[in-house]
Write a structure and sequence with these properties.
Layout lengths: L4 H17 L4 H9 L6 H29 L3 H53 L4 H8 L6 H15 L5 H11 L3 H16 L3 H55 L8 H25 L4
Helix pairs in contact: 1-3, 3-4, 4-9, 5-6, 6-7, 7-8, 9-10
Length: 288
């Protein structure tokens, strides 16, 4: 998410209100930087307020039109609930989005860090300085969010004229990943103490590769457990239930569990179960 014509328009329109609310502080600015949301906090809050207001007006107009077209009690209920729920969901989206993006970026950085460290170690052994290393990383697309973090460091060094240590310290403040912060802090400490940077990178490669292997083994174990529960709860149990219901309906002369329950099971319960297991598997798996 980045600044655009709409967000700038919202900022101009809502700036006085946002300034009166006095919501901005350093931690909230850093939160947007960690989420890689490229706009000021005032602009982000202005966009959230304006979008919520527009969603309220739009949902209110649609609700009134629906009620006028179908003046029934259900339409009246929708006309009341819709203008309340949609702005609430819109506001919740803007509140939750920074935290959600921070967690997503942290997960990707931690996943790629062992391989990036290996690449960094190779460049350091070839004689490249830390500034040149991060400039190179900022051009490698396969490193995703680490590329974005490296781009910030390279921008401060080569465009803003900041020294390498200061740029790295700024990156430590706004990085969403604890492991990446520790990695950068180690670089700063190694440079300031005059120690061998190549040795530091080699040690980090070994450490992160061992951690990565352990996390992948744990992920496979969790996936194995989920696969077993998936087979039992979503495949075997429904088949057994269908057989039991069918037998009960025949033996009890139709007085057993109605067949409508089978339709509910097939069209609602099982699809929701599949979606739930998919979300769980995505959560515990370590992507390649």
């Amino acid at each position: 998410m980045r600044s655009n014509a709409y967000t700038r328009f919202c900022r101009r329109l809502m700036l006085r209100l946002v300034e009166k609310l006095q919501l901005e502080d350093i931690s909230k600015k850093h939160m947007l930087e960690k989420a890689n949301i490229k706009m000021t906090y005032k602009e982000y809050v202005s966009t959230a307020i304006m979008t919520s207001l527009l969603s309220f007006i739009t949902s209110l107009v649609i609700s009134i039109m629906l009620y006028l077209m179908n003046p029934f009690p259900l339409s009246f209920l929708v006309a009341i609930v819709l203008p309340i729920l949609i702005p609430l969901f819109t506001s919740a989206y803007f509140i939750i989005r920074p935290t959600s993006m921070i967690k997503k970026r942290e997960k990707e950085i931690d996943r790629l860090l062992p391989y990036v460290t290996n690449f960094v170690s190779t460049m350091a052994s070839a004689g490249l300085s830390p500034a040149e290393i991060f400039k190179t990383l900022s051009r490698v697309d396969i490193y995703g969010e680490i590329k974005e973090e490296s781009k910030k460091i390279a921008k401060e060094i080569y465009i803003m004229g900041v020294d390498t240590i200061t740029a790295l310290k700024h990156a430590i403040e706004v990085s969403p990943s604890r492991k990446f912060k520790e990695f950068l802090q180690g670089i700063v400490g190694t440079i300031q103490s005059g120690s061998d940077l190549n040795a530091y990178f080699e040690n980090k490669v070994k450490e992160y590769m061992v951690d990565d292997l352990a996390s992948r083994k744990k992920s496979l174990e969790n996936l194995a457990v989920l696969a077993e529960t998936f087979i039992i709860t979503v495949i075997a149990f429904p088949l057994f239930l269908v057989i039991v219901i069918s037998i009960m309906s025949f033996t009890s002369g139709g007085a057993g569990i109605p067949f409508s329950f089978l339709f509910v099971l097939s069209l609602i319960i099982l699809p929701l179960a599949y979606i739930g297991y998919y979300v769980l598997m995505k959560g515990v798996s370590v992507e390649p």
